[in-house]
Amino acid sequence: MARSVLILCGGWDGHEPKLVTQRFKTFLEREGFEVSVAETLDVLNDQERLESLDLFIPVWTMSSDPPPQFGPLLEAVGAGLGIAGNHGGMCDAFRLSTDYQFLTGANWVSHPGGGDTNYTVNIISKSNPITEGIHDFKVSSEQYYLHVDPANEVLATTRFPVAHWFHSANGEVDVPQVWTRRWGYGRVFYNALGHHDDVFNIPEAWELMKRGLLWAAEGKRIAREQGLSVNDWTSNKKMF
Fold first, then answer.
1. Which helix (H) or strand (E) holds 207?
2. Fewest CB within 10 angstroms: 15, 108, 141, 228, which?
3. Which CATH number goes with the domain that contains 108?
4. How many helices (H) and strands (E) does the chain have?
5. Number of domains making up the chain
6. Contact status, residue 211 vs residue 130, Cβ threshold 8 Å
7. What is the spatial distance between Cα 224 and Cα 137, in angstroms, rounded to a whole number?
């Protein structure tokens, strides 16, 4: 039985969500996945559908106020559903939702210098299967400054400041750009690259993204084969 993927496509048009969605969809279908696309946030309330998936990909920058309720997604990922995404489509979505930010591992706060910033992505994990054989590479795009969960397994960083601004008073700092993390039995992958779809014409950027998508999709299969239950992680305490 083919594994299933849902891509949530929408939000701010400036990040070319339809082009990014089509790129991801084409790749995953070639890998044997059944891929569907939703263009409404209603899907986030459909617990049964979310639990039937192997991978969920948000391609939805920003959102309306108030944000959706994320209980069904948190539960589904906790049970093994993978979630993977890039740039603003994942970590600049639903800015008012702290539970969503807790799930993804970060939130966007700035991109000093704008869309034509020349910077380097530094691979800091040399042995992880997602980064194996990939070396540091140059990018001309938005350089994402993110507030990041220290529990993330960081695979790549970028050094700030490149563009001079108020944050430069703090000196140099390496901000995570690519990472993995766990949410219950679910796998979470994020890649900060992708202000426009053509950033993925850079071979290293696209290879990281492809590997991350496939890695995140594996968690559901493992949880199912081992008979693991989301009940291992649930709590009746107030978490948000």
1. helix 203-225
2. 228
3. 3.40.50.880
4. 6, 11
5. 1
6. yes
7. 37
